[in-house]
Write a structure and sequence with these properties.
Blueprint lengths: L4 E5 L8 E6 L2 E7 L5 E5 L13 E3 L2 E3 L6 E3 L5 E3 L18 E5 L2 E5 L13 E2 L3 E3 L3 H11 L4 E2 L4 E5 L8 E10 L2 E8 L7 H19 L4
Antiparallel strand pairs: 1-10, 2-3, 3-4, 5-6, 6-7, 7-8, 9-10, 11-16, 12-16, 13-14, 14-15, 15-16
Bound molecules: FE2/S2 (inorganic) cluster.
FE2/S2 (inorganic) cluster binds next to loops.
């Protein structure tokens, strides 16, 4: 798949932090530099293969936990090798970032930076949910079971919340973590006068019911 897909909620990734995210079967080091820019890198140090998600953020750079090699968020190049402080690291020692954008409260990733990106209409972001189902199976199950559900694309659909939750339209987005795990994100398009406390409480029950119905990850 080469299109854009959400991989995390923006507010899950604070400045100066790194998390691991699965995307299309690949482990990513997802990190935010001190200026607020997010980066999605293959989760493997070019030196000895240690997980970069175990490293630390220093300003606009990620520092590998094992031998301290430092990589610039600007272009992925290694800028410092502590064991050889006088050596300029070769330009070939670098990390190729995945394409990344932020929109509608979500961090989006793509294997193809040129793929067309259409941002969903902003809304109230639901709590992301993992399912132990492949993406096509979960997509089919949701389309068949949710009121007014219609597909907008391979990972994107519109539905309506149950009447008891106000019947608001909801955009549902899917991320294929790997062949057997899919994450579900929702954007509820409620008007500003909606009772947010009641909506949040109802959303939790609704999402729990979806988890029971379609096989949430343990
Ligand atoms: S494994 Fe990352 S610096 Fe050595």
């Amino acid at each position: 798949m080469t299109g854009w897909a959400p991989i995390a909620a923006s507010d899950e990734l604070a400045g100066g932090h790194i998390v691991e995210a699965l995307f299309e079967g690949r482990s990513l080091a997802l990190w935010r530099d001190s200026a607020g820019a997010a980066h999605a890198w293959p989760n493997r140090c070019p030196h000895r293969g240690v997980l970069l998600s175990l490293g630390t953020v220093d300003g606009d750079s990620l520092v590998c936990r094992y031998h301290g090699w430092r990589f610039s968020g600007a272009d992925g190049r290694c800028t410092r090798i502590p064991a050889h402080p006088g050596l300029a690291p070769p330009a070939s020692v670098r990390i190729d970032a995945l394409a990344l954008r932020e929109a509608a409260g979500l961090i989006w990733c793509s294997n193809d930076a040129e793929a067309a990106f259409i941002a969903p209409e902003p809304g109230i972001l639901t709590r992301p949910l993992p399912f132990t189902l492949g993406l096509p199976s979960l997509r089919g199950a949701l389309l068949g079971a949710l009121p007014g559900a219609s597909a907008v694309g391979d990972i994107w659909m519109r539905a309506n919340l149950p009447h008891a939750l106000g019947g608001w339209p909801i955009t549902l987005l899917l991320r294929r973590a790997d062949a057997q795990e899919t994450w579900l994100y929702g954007l509820i398009h409620a008007t500003p006068d909606a009772d947010l406390i009641a909506l949040r409480a109802g959303e939790s029950h609704w999402m729990a019911a979806i988890r029971r119905q379609f096989g949430a990850a343990p």
